[in-house]
Amino acid sequence: MRQLFSLLLAATAAIAVADEPVVSFRRDVMPVLFRAGCNQGTCHGSSRGKDGFSLSLFGYDWKGDYFRLTQEIIGRRVNVAVPEESLLLLKATGAVPHTGGKRFDKKTAYYQTLRRWIEQGALSDAGDVPEPIAITLSPPKILFDGDAQPVQTRVMAQYSDGSSHDVTSLALYYSNNPSTAAIDQHGRVTSANRGDTYVFARFNRFTIGSEVIVLPSDADYKWSDPPAHNYIDELVFDRLQKLQLLPSALSDDETFLRRVYLDLTGVPPGVADYTRFIEDNRVDKRVRLIDALLESEDFTDMTTGLWAESVRLMGGGYTPVATDLKAAEAYYQWIKNQVKQNRPLDEFVYDQVTASGSNLNDGPTNLYTMLVHDVRFRPKNFAADFSQLFLGVQIQCAECHNHPFDRWTMDDYYGFVSFFTGITRKPGAEPREFYVFNKRQASPANHKVDGRPMAATVLGGAAPVDAQLDSRIALAKWLTSPENKLFARNSSNRIWARFFHRGLVEPVDDMRISNPPTNGPLLDELARRLVQYQFDQRQLIRDICNSRTYQLSSQPNATNQLDDRQFSRARLRRLRSDVLLDSIIKVTGWDRPFRNFPKGTKAIEFYPRTPGDTAQPLWFDDFLKTFGRSSRNSICACETKPEPTLSQTLHMLVGDNTNSAIRAGLVPQLLKQGKSPPGIIEELFIRCVSRKPTSDELAAMLDLVGDEVEGRAAYEDILWSLLNSTEFSFNR
To answer: In CATH, which of 3.40.50.2000, 2.130.10.10, 2.60.40.1080, 1.10.1200.10 is domain 132-215?
Structure first.
């Protein structure tokens, strides 16, 4: 039957009109299927297809698509004898029932292209066909300044033979924020509410965006000309001026003090810290404070804890007998030493990527035991987590098809996986020990579509690495190279997010073309500076904390009250679960124990380390679990949850942790010191919220104390109210 169909195709092609252009399946037909939405994930491009018919997602497998169109149900989907009776045409035009509905009319160029292809014999392409190698979207920037007239965009595709074609009618379009600006199926952009966004066009495997800014039509705007402390402010302020936003005022000393302590050290300042800073009259006291905190042990603990969370460090969950506490501690202490020594970020990562040896004695080898919690090492899982952590690229989206929203192909994915196919975890002298090494000449990953062995190749690389070497060395050199913008941008974005509670790219681990930064020049400059600083993280952090942008007040003005993208004011940030708990501990002097950890351990230092922890972390700590500490079940940054819940409120109001902290002895200690009621109340305020009470607050608290000036109950009630205040649980 198939031979007969092939003969029919040849015969039909032979009688085609001689001067009629030949319709190419790859160049002409596939783009129509793409534009009509036939090969999208919601239609026939889904993993199971739709209504018994499957296409490759966004056309990554054109050979398979051609076979399914022409050979699976011969003469029905494509009928070369009577082209008009082809299901491909009948369903697309709504002539017969179609789950996807009508896709286009008979009068359209889409219909005519498909019909001509069928009339010419529905032939596959012989030989090489020019492939799209890039697309452009114009205009690259769109400004609506009181003008509501739609703007027509244009998409041009550049092909491998040097030609260019207008593919505006074949591209797909979408907006990141339709409430600011929308784009229709024809590429026309319309404005809505004030703000900024991106509109995107996708053609073939390429996605490109244009920035859209919508300004108010009746704004009486005048730039306030605040002084810039450094390059960060210059780039932020430039962006604000373009959007006609004014930055908020500079935060006061009390607000800044609490903010920088919580961000750098994970705990609020003590009373002595408060007094020393507030009474300091030097103009550079903020600079001095930042420098001091960056050298503190608390900064080391905070940064170590964040890294431990990022690499999913835990004491159980991946060995056959799950008694790997020593390995976890070896990794944790290695990270802590690197942070304490201010080891450059590139060297810090390089050592982990190339590590070999015992997981009990060689800390960085545990990157290969922690990142994927499994008895067996799984190269695909590890490659996905590795890419997401160190590059911010979710390469796993290209495992079964080309990445739907980025430039990565299946070739990129399997070439990257091949770096890890040789990773071996060999049992050591005791059950909890592994020797981690990379087997040279290991078989590479095989391409899912055609089974090709894919040599180890860096993302975006044109040539495979030298197979004679440990491929991880080549990977580490590429990863940490000053020329690798992916690594520098991802690292800078994550550092920025630590201090602003959102990245310039958000989420921080999803950096792709279709998710551009809110301030691209700023991210580029931060990445450039990080390289210039030879990957000294502290220097970049110093720049951020010294910027006026970081030190702005959270109090909005008339122009920026709706801004949550451009850092025109400080963002109210709910404290992480571990930072909140450590703050309670420091404020009250509570000697709070952590199961299986030595006395004096802080919440930020606490990680799951319980034998038998095979399904999920057994924190044995209701507070951390309730307040959204990362479960470390995946590499996703979303594992740490800042959203408030009713359970959290009840936990703070009546939970054992709050009550135990209050009863820890702070109030009796203050009473024993002979402090007056106003003095005790003032110290409680300074400890909890890093400020003195207002006159109204002090009067109300003194009324609460009344005549019981020597009793502890009223003061403990005041302490309870402060711990339960929004001001305490948020960094402002």
So the answer is: 2.60.40.1080
